[in-house]
Amino acid sequence: MKRDVAIVGAGYVGVPLAHAFAEVGKKVVLVDIDPARVERLNRGDSYIEDIPSETLKPHVESGSISATTDYDELREADAILIALPTPLSRQREPDLRILISAAEEIATRLRPGHLVVLESTTYPGTTREQVLPVLESGSGLTAGKDFYLAFSPERVDPGRDDWTTKTVPKVVGGIDQASTDAAVAFYAAAIDTVHPVSSPEAAELTKLLENIFRSVNIALVNELAQLCDRMGIDVWEVVEAAATKPFGFMSFKPGPGLGGHCIPIDPFYLTWKAREYGFYTEFIELAGKVNESMPWFCRSVVSQALNHSLQLSLSGSRILVLGVAYKPNISDTRESPAIKLIGLLEAAGSDVSYHDPHVPSFRENGITMSSSPLDPASYDCVVVVTDHYGIDYDRLVEDSKLVVDLRNATGANGKGSDKVWKL
């Protein structure tokens, strides 16, 4: 069947992309290796919170969006977008096996005139040095002559409704001018603003800079939080006061660490690539170390709170972790610092449960748990790790024996309570 767009990867990036193009009348097919995902999508049943089923289903019923496990569907599409995971290995090095495997599949279906765009976050040079040779050798075609090839980074921020796939500007860099022009024209049909850059390397580095910027600034306030703890100063008060300056300061909040599919991972793509040039990104790596150490620091805060407030140790204490998603009001637990903290608390002998209205259960890092009812009085300590909006934090403080608030969710009321410890 003729399609305007084929998207390889039906996850947090692929499904919103499909919706954006379907909204402007394009026919889209999502290609994924998971039959269960494909079945759900073809029923109009969405597993992506940003595109609820009631939004997806009309497009499925009209035939604008379909899903398949068959890569042959790529042959009839005008454009092929790659939106696949690019994880890190245990050694914190880029693992492109999923991407390269997909590129090999795409290559055997490639035809003259195709536009191929990589959206997966990766290091500068991936499109030209890794994807291009696979596509050319597998197809017998020449990039820039027979088909177009570009990189355009995904900029998804799950849970937002103020900025969407349609409204966030799209950065595009092709391997040559013709590829850039083709990609710009393609995205302009569905995205409000398209910003071309000179090369895929520039586009790849743009995405890394965006997330490294956040990582470094979060690391700064996380380090400041640890210093404030020693100095007896409220870091939240300091950040709030600094934010009153109308210029020269951007407010970032401390917390138990970084989570999600981008910020904890993306900086390592660049530090790895930089070593190829004999360059060491010490500033970026230091930020990573600070942020990765935060769950250990937060465990020590919980330990101090139990000891000083209730004369209890971590060992044997009943602790409720409030929120395991990596950010408020979503169900995504990827790289969540809450799960790391749960592991650390359990290793110290604590009896740990969690409550999260968005995450009924999870299985990660060797931990399998289900959400417990929010019954603060049944626990020695409640640790606020993810500040979901639907929680009555004033009531939480009233009903709890002890609260360790790692997100300042309890606000001014928490500051005035002798039952609340803050980061």
Explain this structure:
The protein has 13 helices and 15 strands. By secondary structure, the protein is α/β, with parallel strands linked by helices. It folds into 2 domains: 196 residues, NAD(P)-binding Rossmann-like Domain (Rossmann fold), CATH 3.40.50.720; 190 residues, 3-Layer(aba) Sandwich (Rossmann fold), CATH 3.40.50.720. The strands form 3 sheets. Strands 3-2-1-4-5-6-7-8 form an 8-stranded mixed beta sheet, with helices on both faces. A hairpin with a 2-residue loop joins strand 11 and strand 12. Helix 7 packs parallel to helix 10 and helix 10 crosses helix 11. The protein starts with a strand and ends with a strand. 47% of the residues are buried. The model has no long low-confidence stretch (mean pLDDT 95).
Total strands: the figure is 15
Give Rg in angstroms: 23 Å
Strand portion: 15-25%
Largest sheet at a glance? 8 strands, mixed
Spatial strand order of the main sheet: 3-2-1-4-5-6-7-8
Q: CATH fold name of the largest domain, please? A: Rossmann fold
Total number of helices: 13
* CATH evolutionary superfamily of the largest domain: NAD(P)-binding Rossmann-like Domain
Helix fraction? 25-40%
Order of helices and strands: EHEHHEEHEHEEHEHHHHEHEEEEHEHE
* CATH level 1 name of the largest domain: Alpha Beta
